[in-house]
Amino acid sequence: MTEKFSTAMYMDRGAEQLVEILNYYISAIVEKVLIFGGDILKFAGDALLALWKVERKQLKNIITVVIKCSLEIHGLFEAKEVEEGLDIRVKIGLAAGHISMLVFGDETRNYFLVIGQAVDDVRLAQGMAQMNDVILSPNCWQLCDRSMIEIERIPDQRAVKVNFLKPPATFNFDEFLTKCMSFMDYYPTSKHKNILRLACMLESDPKLELALQKYVMENILKQIDDKQLGGYLSELRPVTIVFVNLMFKEQDKAEVIGPAIQSACVHITSVLKVFRGQINKVFMFDKGCSFLCVFGFPGEKAPDEVTHALESAVDIFDFCSQVHKIHTVSIGVASGIVFCGIVGHTVRHEYTVIGQKVNIAARMMMYYPGMVTCDSVTYNGSNLPAYFFKELPKKVMKGVGDSGPIYQCLGLNEKVMFGMAYLICNRNEGYPLLGREKEIKYFMCTMKEFLISNCSQILMYEGLSGFGKSQILMEIEYLAQGENHRTIAIALTKVSFHQNFYTIQILMANVLGLDTCKHYKERQSSLQSKVKTLLDDKFHCLLNDIFHVQFPISREISRMSTTRKQKHLEALFMKILEKTVKEERIIFIIDEAQFVDIASWAFMEKLIQTVPIFIIMALSPFIDSPCASASAIMKNRNTTYVTLGAVQPKDIRNKVCIDLNVSSISKELDAYLVEGSCGIPYYCEELLKNLDNHKILLFQQKESEEKTNVTWNNMFRNLTKPTGEFNIFSLSKYDGVEEVCNLASGVRLRNLSPPASLKEISLVQLDSMSLSHQMLVRCAAIIGLTFTTELLFEILPCWNMKMMIKALATLVESNIFYCFRNSKALRLALKHNVTSFEVHYRSLSLKPRDMLDKEEIMFSKAEMPKISEFFSEDLSPQGIKEKILGFFDLIITKMKTSQEDIIPLESCQCEEILQMVILPLAHHFVALEENNKALYYFLEIASAYLILGDNYRAYLYLNEGEKLLKTLKKEKSWSQTFESATYYTLKGQVCFNMGHMVLAKKMLRRALKLLNRTFPYNFISLFLQSHVEKNRHFYFLNQQGQEGPPPEKKRLAQLYQQTTCFSLLWQIYSLNYFFHHQYYGNLAALMQVNTALETQNDFQIIKAYLDYSLYHQLRGYQGMWFNYEIMAMEQILNLPLKGEGIEIMAHVADTLGYIKFIMGHLDLAIELGSRAHKMWALLRNPNKHYIVLCRLSKSLFLKSRYKQLIQVLGWLWDLSVAEEHIFSKAFFYFVCLDILLYSGFIYRTFEECLEFIHQNEDNRILKFQNGLLLGLYSSIAVWYARLQEWENFYKFFNRAKTLVPRRTPTLLYYEGIIRYMEGQVLHLQKQIEEQSENAQDSGVELLKNLERLVAQNTTGPVFYPRLHHLMAYVCILMGDGVNCDLFLNTALQLCESQGNTLEKCWLNMSKEWWYSSSELTSDQWLQTVLSLPTWEKIASGKISIHDVQKNKFLMRVNILDNPF
Length: 1460
Fold this sequence. Notes:
The chain is α/β, with parallel strands linked by helices and 1460 residues long.
């Protein structure tokens, strides 16, 4: 049962469920025993030893009572099966007779044992029992009332099996029990009939409590004293079990075995104490006394636990084998997850360990007597050399299925076996060292310095276990190979530290060539020849011990002290090394250098001062302070000390793809491994093994993107690829077929149980803390990866702030928590792991966090202009424009100059709140199985990520919501229907943002149906609905001044969702070319306005008015749009100048600026955009601020107002850096590319823009904002096409091509598609030049696509000049001069009306060029590119802006004869 819960895939409630199941049944048994007059003497795992203490004359009747009790216990379990599918049964053995008790221990801890024939008999009886049996020992059968018992004989045994009781007809068992219990002093009387144990009624007695505390383990007492809740005392935990069995020469005599047990107990306790182990139980077991010892109890977990357990086992074995009267010592050691916790009844329970590993240790102890044995987990986890162990023949052990290999531990004294200590270099040529370029660079630099200088160099890599130190050394050993220098690489173990001079011994064995000698005589002969010139013959015996040779011992050496011998030996080694380095340099590589012994450190300190040698070490941080020589080496001026950092996320991704041999992995898997591994390679490997063990990884053949139909499930092509530099490695290509790795369906990675190895590591760190700090860390872990002190304080209300800050400071100093002063620093830390760095000094400080409060202040309405004054009837459009701009200026002035602060004191923290509050709440409710609440929060999370522009995260959490929706009962409740509607609305938004309009429409229609607002499917219902909505609209507009009561809460929630659906639907229908879709679009836009008016919410109404105005402008309806813009402005005049009111005003300025830009009113777009920029900057809302800066920069770009453009780009860059905002940074580089392509100067170099794309094209926000990535790819493709670099052109053009089908009615998409079409035009030019067969067809198709784009309702007029320019060029390439002229003139007229000076200048140059007779050379643009000036030169006045405007790309037309 323990095994099932410990290996379960999810960590939901394993320990709690196990405790519930165990204690449900065990407490039932305990209760029966107590009711029938017995008591529990000992708990031994899942076994109980019960005792009825009676006089001899009562024994006959009491045996009857105990048999009745046993049969009733079996009755509890009959036909019952645990919910988890575990069939639990009991077997019972009964014995009667005399017993003795032994008490032993020391001044701090006591134990007791019961011994005697009755104890042996009851174990034998229980051993004979099968499930549901009650077995009576021979003595018990002799003493019982045989007339009351029906039995069954057991073949060849004197013991018997009880079938049932057969009392006489007149027998009353209750009266019989009452009579029997009257002789028992400890049985509750009628006065205490509701009490099970009289011990529970004892009054407080400090002296008795102190005496009893000696029988409770120390770590449990600590937790009780710290007032830990009982639930925290039980857990499934990785531990190491050491089972010690002592067999005695005379088992039956207490006076004989008592002293032996006392001696053994005292020694075992002293040995365990050193390594934080504890004795959990002591009991007599199959003719011997057994000690159940545990390493790794809560609060006692320590590093190298397995090694300590083996070391303790060997020590105990050696000691107990020498104790008088002990005949045989047998020890079994096993490691793994067991249940540690409280079992029993509320009135009688004990702290114990239960699990398969406990059973394995016990069975090894009994089946392999007279030795120390361990299982394969212990063997592998010890990290000790294989020659410390010997594999034993497997035996079939009772109750153990497959135990795996069993090993005998031969002892932990290091044997000098030359060659075994060398670093095993299994470097794989096809497996690169990932993410350690910086660390290898340190080596290459130090190596170069060592080879050209004549002095020693030391390179030390420090890192925790799992950081890949050994892999770095393997790579270094490979790179260090070369002529004229020798590389010696060794790996030390924990026991090496205790072997004097061991490290130098191995070094010298290699230098002298002894590692290849097979026999001591061969070593002796080799030594003699190599040291004869350096050492007198009489001193050769100095080498005996260190090199295992047998030179005759001279008189001088026999009289020499140990210190003098060591000095002579060191002097000899120094001479040998001095001689060796004259012939070849030595590179000495030491892995696990923290285990270098003190004598070797001292020798190395002298060595580096005397002999030029290059020493490279990898070590874990020292547990204690390093010795003086080690410190001196670390501080040496020739030492480079590197602290290893974590591997970056891209390298983790690459590692996973190589380990799994796939071309790409699931994004969800990528995120899980990057976050879960914390950048530590070993953690990543263990997580992968765990996933594979649970069969979560699915390997599938990669599908072609073109062949895949887009559905909700495959929308994101849910795969992450390795980085570009990994193309040199062949990943999963068999016969040209690539494999990808996905996750099995329905897997909840977040709730997955961590692998035992990682749980072990975390518990070591957790147990090193005080109990209060542990509580703090546990609570923080429940909140999530990031948290605020305020949220933690809410969870722990009993703490005061001073106590909290003190505890947090300690945890920060210990590198358990990391403290960030602001959200920027936090986001940066989450995106990039700390890299390796060279250490000169260490210091940590905790900076107090500033506490800031927000305050909202309202302006008087009297200060706001009146509607009648604002829009008087005699005002011209120009006057209205000035009034609107003046209004926004007034608002900005009020915001800046008000004495009362109405501006937020800090930036918007939506993302932080999302990650630190809402996300943890959602996962918290999932763990509690409160799926309704969890669903609500997951939908909130998805909505928030949509606002933040992260479509992929929104998609992920909607899938989490979908899983929860399926678990809910099919109820027609309002709340469940509404949550379903919200779910489909959000799915529709994701599909819309991703350009999958058919899916989006389907989702939105379904949402509206659930919201009781069906959208028409056919013409009849369309026209009927249109008529109804027009009447509703007329009614709402006439009733606006007479507002009725606002809708109730539920109705309002529905209306908000409906407005979102309608807003998206009219945009979707506007994308379609079919004439009837305009009617659907018009209806959706009208329904949005009507629904918004019904809400009576200012923001919804204003947003709907502005959307309706934009819809009419894009459709070309001249009359209506102006009225709705005026109505929107009238609406904001009613708003108070406070929190939401100011944000609505900023939104109106922003949206009006967007509308004016898309309609081509560039001057007005700039005016409104600049005001919106000021307002969002003051409101400190970066998510809105960057959008308005992006739009403003495009308006200024088209107007060729470069000075202001560069200023806006500067703001955009600062914002992107301050907020770590990838989208605004990407748009910044998009505009920089536009400047290069169309403005004729350099603001950022092409190489910098290209590097940004290479580094960030896989960013999940950019990747799924297809318009921006489409624009970036297309701009790069256009650049290469202009330079005639067609191979590079195709690379980026094809990437852009995959994004084209994802059409969205957004500015970014149209910017991107126009760049893409320009690339197509340049490619057509190439086709015509090369006289390609399909050039004519390509030209016709391209012209149709350009015309279709112009005709599309959602294409804003601002794009028309560029589109007509491209159409003109296609026409001239195709020889159609008439249409070329028409398109050129149309484009020029549009530029004139819009004020688009950039395109106008280019059009005039094109027209002049195309009409001229001169030819354009193919490298003219290349010459222009090479001479492009930088903005600095233009700003300084060295180059005129008028000269810069001539740096335009002129499309060649000398392909055909000029048609004009």
